[in-house]
Design brief:
Layout (H helix, E strand, L loop, with lengths): L15 H5 L8 E8 L3 E7 L4 E4 L4 E6 L4 E10 L2 E11 L8 E3 L2 E12 L1 H16 L9 H12 L9 H13 L1
Antiparallel strand pairs: 1-2, 1-4, 1-8, 2-5, 3-4, 5-6, 6-8, 7-8
Amino acid sequence: MSALPQAVSNAPPIPRPVLSRVTNDTPLTRVSLAFVAQRINLYLRFGHPVRELRLDRWRRCAVFLPAAMFCRVRWESNDYGTTRWQLMVLQACMPLDAVQRIAGIQPGARLLLCAEGERQVQSVLPQIDAIEALGIDPAAVSPAYWRTLGNRLSARLPLPAYTAERHTAYLAGEVLQ
């Protein structure tokens, strides 16, 4: 039986410049989160929501701006042990972008990586930890890297490491666009 992931601590406060970009016509992506001890833990592994709403004792809703990247982890259990492990790296989209419909994410998001099952999720989490150890925010990593990681995971090939050089090259390419 797998250990229950710990509940995520409160996120740091959102900087004022981020909140000032939100207007009434900004398309926002809403992500449902939940925690019921020994049953379900649906949480953000990384990402920077512009707002987080507490719906009740067990449920929250995180709100993201377009193009924001985030990672949602889902862990479920019953009386006999773990029933589901899922990790998704997603990118919030604009209204006319092609999006995938995903339960708990309104109106949808671009799916960059999907890991299903304990083995796959446990192999992706160290990759995220390694990125954070480099001092890089996982939400600022190249979307192409997350897609590559997902493809290599599906093909059961060795997972590539994200390096500082790769991140520098991605940031340089973003400046040119």
